[in-house]
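anyone else get weird line breaks when pasting these?? whatever heres mine. first is seq + tokens for prot A
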Amino acid sequence: QVQLVESGGGLVQPGGSLRLSCAASGVTFTRYTMAWFRQAPGKERAFGAAVSQRTGSSPIPDSVEGRFTISKDKAKNMVYLQMNSLKPEDTALYYCAASGTVIVSQMRVQAGYNYWGLGTQVTVSS
């Protein structure tokens, strides 16, 4: 049984930083792709970052390139999203996702993931 639990969200001023954490159980990091998606109010869920242990691929969208970094700790079964230079448009509910079958070309697509956490809210505001 795969379970993903996010934490680390909160209120931060523009230009600030946050580190989101995802505790993953029932996941073998050597075989799973882990990802972060986000959903702003009134918008569709959007890709944030991903990392595949199998392929080494780690795509990240242009909107957060240079500001967001995904990492994982295999010993602790944790995935992290380090977010720097936060902007008001980064305000969203952030979800952790996992898949044992997603292919590289589908890593940016939410339909490629079959396990999801409940999300953690990030609000960037002064």
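and prot B, same format (seq, then tokens)
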Amino acid sequence: QVQLVESGGGLVQAGDSLRLSCAASGRTFSRNAMGWFRQAPGKEREFVAAISWSGGRTNYADSVKGRFTISRDNAKNTVYLQMNSLKPEDTAVYYCAATGSVRNNMYVSARRDEYQYWGQGTQVTVSS
């Protein structure tokens, strides 16, 4: 059974940092692009960041560019999201996701419908 399990969420103050982790099990994701999405109460789930399976290409939403960094360790089947300078508007449930296997080692996507596997989410709350 394929599972993506997020961890690292919590309650922090504005300006603080958090590092989210997403551990995959059940199969290797070394040939899958990975992404982070978030969903705030009453809002649609939105793209945050993505990384190619090689790690050689990344993509970020404008709202987090320069503050968040996505990375991955294929040997550990884990993807990370380093979040710095957090703002109250970053408050949301953060979801890890994986695309299907792809040949293009620089492929990334910001589209929800291109991700086949999803975690259960981890809550991030940023107080002002």
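btw re prot B: The chain has a mean pLDDT of 96. The first strand starts at residue 3 and ends at 7.
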